[in-house]
Design goal:
- Helix content is 26%, strand content 34%.
- The two termini are 24 Å apart.
- The chain is α+β, with helices and mostly antiparallel strands and 387 residues long.
- The protein has a domain at 1-120: 2-Layer Sandwich (60s Ribosomal Protein L30, Chain: A).
- The chain has a seven-stranded mixed beta sheet with strand order 1-2-3-4-7-5-6. Strands 8-9-10-13-11-12 form a six-stranded mixed beta sheet. It has a six-stranded mixed beta sheet with strand order 14-15-16-19-17-18, covered by helices on one side.
- The chain has seven helices and 19 strands.
Amino acid sequence: MDNGNKQYQTIQSDKTLTELFKYDGGSNPSEYHVIIHSTCRENTYEEQLNAILDAYEALLEQPLHGAVAVFKRYFLSDAANQADLLQAIAAEGMDCALSIVEQPPLNGTKVALWAYLQTGVSTQVLPGGLFEAKHGIYRHLWMGGSYNRAANAEYQTRLMLNDYVLQLAGQGCKLAKNCVRTWFFVQNVDVNYAGVVKARKEVFITQNLTEQTHYIASTGIGGRHADPKVLVQMDAYAVDGLQPGQVRYLYAPTHLNPTYEYGVTFERGTCVDYGDRRHVFISGTASIDNKGEIVSPGDIRKQTERMWENVEALLAEAECTFDDVGQMIVYLRDPADYPVVQSMYNERFPHTPKVITLAPVCRPGWLIEMECMGVKQVDNGSKYAPF
């Protein structure tokens, strides 16, 4: 499907289903989101993984010729038994920031892949471990799979964030100025999320991230590392070269309340303007109203509809719509809700790349949560350099 300078494509093979989004940047970098699903539930993990890797390699020949990966996330059904093989394969050809998380794909398979690619960028792994994609005056800094084995979730989160602050400082960047997006994957989220919230808030204060300044778009969600001692792992994205005014924060106050009102510290959404395009990052968003209350407890259909409405309101604040969205990740607490949610998404968003995973949301009453990334052509060339 073509939508101006955006194209959606679905590729079906005997072993995989690939959903592809392309934003044509013209003389500037083009962007791709790719989500590859295994379709052979009866196959072994190794067979499913190899099918996904083969499908990805085929894409690099055509239609992704000339594009390079800047970030990949693998969703596994059983990380303890699957991550070693994946890491061994990834180590052979480490080409981007890599995230591996146990969030079982709810189509009944063992592995799925989301990859974000760009053309016209130079890439390298920096000495501190960040992955850099550079074009023009901007350096896009990706981090995947940060973790440690401190005593509890609070200490692990604090150490991760403090280490990330140092990594950014090594590149002349700051958390408050340059970090655009974070993800926290929390083992046993109902128990451990409180420690994540406490540590994040305390570290943020030291970095001048408060309710009077701003926070960072984020998803905090259930997810496991292969090592049971790892209670929290983190992915992050920052941009070096931004000027004042390029980043705006999205609130949708008619639909959502400020996160600090219930003790957490993240932005509902963020948009970043470049000379030629606007990026939009919608945080993990659930069925909530502007008083912070759960809308339609226990009803997966109504929660999904309200969640969409909330996301739509955030996108509208960035002058965007669902037509500008390049990928969606959907998190369900109860796998029994998958057939209903899959049907609803396939009907409303038949072409948008998406993956639906088993990942409890940080508040038990929320049955579903989603996040997404979008891009829209704009003309800010008189104010900012192109992407």
